User: What shape does this take?
Amino acid sequence: MLRTKVLELEKGPAVEMATRSAGGKRHLRCWKTLGWTALLILQMQLTGVSGLKNVRVVSPGAVAVGETAALECQYDLEGAELYAVKWYKGKKEFYRYLPKEDPPTKVFPLPGINVDLSESDAHHVVLRDAGFTLTGRYRCEVSADAPSFDTALVVASLVIVDFPDGEPIITAERSSYAVGEMVRANCTAQRSHPPANLTWSVNGRQVRGRHVRRYPLRRDEGNATTTTLGLEVEAGSGTFRRGRLTLRCQATLLSAYNASAELVIEEERPRLASVLGTRESSSAPAAAASPGAAAASPAAAASPPAASSSSSLPPTALPKTGLFIAAMATVSGYGASVCTFGGRSRLR
Assistant: This one.
């Protein structure tokens, strides 16, 4: 026990001194780190360098298949020097820009990506012959040089599209409808990738809900898809405008495609029968049923008509009122008939 106490007495001061020495070194390192940090902050304030800001990626959103896709990485170094700009598709790097290297650009092979180095720089990367494999998310990583070494990472999406074959096509059951009937039509956008978005409008007002019908997509060759949207609305009394109903179908494909087609439906109205035709058809049977007319001799037909007892006035003394009525009847379309006034024929 005595030996143990002696060892503890001998060991105690040495251990305490060693502990104090190690703690002093740690404190010294901390002070040095704080000092260097303060110097860097002071230098940045004196030189006006505060790091990256306003970093973002500008993407066209949608590009037609076979065309060129240009992505832009915008940033503000606020006076600092650029260290590197790196582009990724997903998690794989395919383009790097290092201003202090010669040449500053470097490409990492990635299937489906064809970088145009002549058009790419510290802010832009240009991809030629866009195929459907280019669809995805793209990241831009910007790093400032010493002393800040600030780094920012931003993301944007790109979609490669195949436009529909021409404008949308509208088909209807008939070209004219009467008030109260159901107007049915279909709108079709042929062969696009991805499927086109279709909307209906009637007389300038968009139609939704139960009035539209979505048909199953039709898969064509390759990645193409044909889209059809149906329309079913009642032709109400206030639907027709000046006897016409305008159907409009609009097809869109992200921000790269916008086309529309229109179809004008005519209003069916009841047709009134011709008064002249009705009188002629009604007088024909009466003439056929008259035996006196059928038995009239040629001599009687050739003889002049006898004068009426009530028509004792000479032809020149015919009242003007009768002539005016006769003219009005003729203009109104009720036909013309022959009347006898004082032995002469007059139209009425």
